[in-house]
Amino acid sequence: xxxxxLQLPSWLPDPYILALLGTVxxxxxxxxxxxxxxxxxxxxxxxxxxxxxxxGARLSTREALDGLKHWRLHLTVLASTFLLxxxxxxxxxxxxxxxxxxxxxxxxxxxxxxPSTIQSSIAFTSIARGNVPAAMCAGSFSSLxxxxxxxxxxxxxxxxxAGGFSADSLLRIVLQLLVPFLAGQLLRRWIGGxxxxxxxxxxxxxxxxxxxxxxxAFSEGMVAGVWHQVTxxxxxxxxxxxxxxxxAMLALTWYGSKRLGFVRExxxxxxxxxxxxxxxxxxxxxxxLFGAHAGLAVLPLMLFHQMQLMVCAVLAKRRARDGRVGxxxxxxxxxxxPEKAGVRG
Length: 345
Hints:
Elements (H helix, E strand, L loop, with lengths): L14 H15 L5 H24 L2 H6 L4 H21 L10 H10 L7 H9 L4 H27 L8 H31 L1 H26 L7 H28 L4 H11 L4 H12 L3 H31 L21
Helix pairs in contact: 1-9, 2-8, 2-9, 2-12, 4-7, 4-10, 4-11, 5-13, 6-7, 6-11, 6-13, 7-11, 9-12, 9-13, 10-11, 10-13, 12-13
């Protein structure tokens, strides 16, 4: 008699999201202060550098170059990530300070500047029977561009909230983000095989490093006394604004890509790669850009991340169901679906 593995519904919080929430609770109850804060801050800085070193070592330059042949799709995803999202974030400026306090709005705008995801873009595109290789390349391009674009846009749009263009902030970005990333790229030839063989173990390193960054950021917020601004009403308003933001991006990427003439499989890749934001890339960047104010700055990103996973899980299954029965949008010819869904993220 075979055993069935108990699986939670895809719309429930991911275990890692629960770990993140637990880390926030720990920081609220036992924040690092005094000498412990210095130790936590130093460890967090090292964790950020390690994360971007691993990002650089894992990014295949050859795969990225091969993906350039689908340049229209990648430009569409990049425009969604670094143009449409920021424009919507700027449009929400009118909600400050009546609906959202300044620091929560800064966090909302920051999430609009963060690059797209890689793993979940691939996974949802695969489930929906879309163009998986295109989603893989689009996510990689977005992550690579985010190392330069996110700090640049944050300096331009957030101003003093993110440190501006001061020499100190520029030096921290270069040392903590760019130098480790380039070092990883340079060493990929020698350590790429090791990283592939130990992918699962290094995944725990990634997630543990991010948990440390979250603990340090929220501890600093607790010590600075910034959490009195997050009332239940403000939190509910933030969730509503983020739901509208996600709905707008899902609609723009889906119908906008149709207007641009993309086939269904490409539209699926554009929708899932162009409507999501990377928690793994955004949290370390926030710790560098916002410093002691990173706690409130990353809260909108954490909430949006979980929301996008729940919504896209449902949407991907719907796209797959529509594809299997040969359904098509009005004015769109049915397309034959491939036998294989591609890489399972």
